[in-house]
Amino acid sequence: MGTQPNPLAVLERVQAALNRHDLEAFLECFDPDYQSEQPVHPSRAFIGREQVRKNWSAVFNSTPDFHSELIAAANDGETGWAEWHWSGTRTDGTQFGMRGMTIFGVRNGRITWQRLYMEEVEEAGAGIDAVVRSLTHEPPQEG
Q1: Three-state SS string across 41-89, please?
Q2: Contact indicator for 100, 116 with CB cutoff of 8 Å
Q3: Residue 143: its pLDDT value, please?
Q4: What was the pLDDT predicted at 100?
Q5: 10 Å Cβ neighbour count for 113?
Q6: 2 pLDDT exceeds 50?
Q7: How far apart, in whole angstroms, are the C-alpha atoms of residue 143 and residue 139?
Q8: Long-range contacts made by residues 83-90, C-beta under 8 angstroms, separation at least 24?
Q9: The domain that contains 39 carries what CATH number?
Q10: For residue 2, is it within any domain?
Q11: What's the pLDDT tens digit per position in 98-135?
């Protein structure tokens, strides 16, 4: 009988590899047939660890001081939840910042699937009233 997977132990490996910029150790955290989806951005879905390599090679190359903060995490059997803050300064001098959640499944010590709800941090964006108007298509209220 196999041991119960531990999503939190996998998260610790993921975060350590991210903060060391150790792409090979990071990739070892993912199943070769890993399935990624971003429900808010359906066209970004992919299957396979090679796309993970491509994505994170670009992040590490463009953001040499990339840092990952695991804000909170929980698990239920083979499923884990993580809240992240990723930050750094890109080689062009602009700030890199993403925050959000990932929900993922683990089997045999590797992430087999993941739903990412990660978004770029918007420092100077529309306020809540403007966002609600945009979502509801309501005209601005007077007063």
Answers
A1: CHHHCEECHHHHHHHHHHHHHHCCCCEEEEEEEEEECCEEEEEEEEEEE
A2: yes
A3: 58
A4: 98
A5: 18
A6: no
A7: 13
A8: 84/118, 86/18, 86/118, 88/63, 88/64, 89/63, 89/64, 89/65, 90/62, 90/63
A9: 3.10.450.50
A10: no
A11: 999 999 999 999 999 999 999 999 888 778 888 888 88
Split into its structural domains, the chain has a count of: 1
Q: How far apart are CA 66 and CA 90, in angstroms?
A: 8
Domain containing 17 equals: 7-136
Express each pLDDT in 27-53 by its tens digit. 999 999 999 999 999 999 999 999 999
Which pLDDT value is given to residue 35?
98
Q: What is the pTM of this model?
A: 0.87
Dihedral pair phi/psi, residue 84, rounded to 5°: -120, 155
Smallest CA-to-CA distance from 101 within 111, 113, 87, 115 is with: 115
For 64-81, b/e burial (b = at least 16 CB within 10 A) is eebebebeebebeeeebb
Q: Which two tokens stand for residue 131?
A: 């966002």
Query: Does any domain span residue 113?
Result: yes
| Domain presence at residue 57 | yes
Domain membership of residue 141 (yes or no) is no
